[in-house]
Structure to design on (242 residues):
């Protein structure tokens, strides 16, 4: 027990933001797994509520209609980085939320203030409950959801690199050519950066990591180093306070 107490790392909350295709999910999951932290994919939560809206025939073009039912679906996110889960009203939606239909509509749903307020409250509750620490990835984590996070990282990459990665993730009938994927990403960026409520933006105190020329392993190593440095500083403060 004494050894465990001596080596127990300080709790750390890590916010990783950035646009689609920068490697946020792969990086965040790997970093959380390596450091024994929980993991939360906030984008999956917005996809989940969008999936629910579609399945319940809510008019996605009507913000008022979306706002009126934003509090109805029960969304539960598992935070194990090796096997993250997400359910809506008890149904596993980890597969359905990745369809092209959901992808094309999630920006419209997530722009509605009532939706963002609902999901933001859920995200903060999950982070607060992660006693061993957590890596939270999304688009407004460092700026809005967890502005007091111990470490904020903003991943970026060229549109071409992001399109190539995203096209590689698509399979079967949903696979598209690079040009179409690139245009879709740029359109999504504009929607996320231009929305009035919690737009995609780099926090003033975030560390920017350009992943364009980096392999996934290199990005992971970079972020792990940043987290360990921040956690080491926190441990030092804890010892000094005793």
């Amino acid at each position: 027990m004494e050894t465990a107490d001596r080596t127990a790392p300080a709790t750390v909350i890590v916010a990783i933001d950035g646009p689609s295709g920068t490697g946020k999910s792969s990086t965040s999951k790997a970093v959380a797994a390596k450091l024994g932290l929980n993991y939360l994919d906030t984008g999956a939560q917005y996809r989940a509520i969008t999936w629910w809206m579609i399945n319940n025939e809510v008019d996605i073009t009507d913000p008022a209609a979306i706002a009126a039912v934003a509090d109805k679906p029960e969304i539960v996110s598992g935070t194990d980085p090796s096997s993250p889960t997400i359910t809506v009203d008890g149904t596993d939606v980890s597969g359905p939320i990745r369809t092209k239909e959901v992808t094309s509509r999630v920006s419209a749903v997530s722009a509605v203030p009532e939706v963002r307020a609902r999901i933001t409250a859920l995200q903060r509750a999950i982070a607060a409950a992660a006693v061993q620490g957590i890596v939270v990835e999304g688009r407004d984590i460092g700026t809005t959801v967890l502005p007091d996070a111990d470490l904020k990282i903003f991943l970026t990459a060229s549109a071409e690199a992001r399109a190539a990665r995203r096209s590689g993730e698509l399979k079967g009938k949903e696979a598209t050519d690079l040009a179409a994927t690139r245009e879709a990403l740029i359109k999504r960026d504009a929607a996320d950066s231009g929305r009035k409520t919690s737009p995609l933006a780099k926090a003033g105190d975030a560390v920017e990591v350009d992943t364009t020329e980096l392999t996934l392993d290199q990005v992971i190593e970079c972020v792990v180093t940043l987290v360990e440095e921040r956690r080491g500083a926190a441990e030092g403060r804890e010892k000094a306070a005793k």
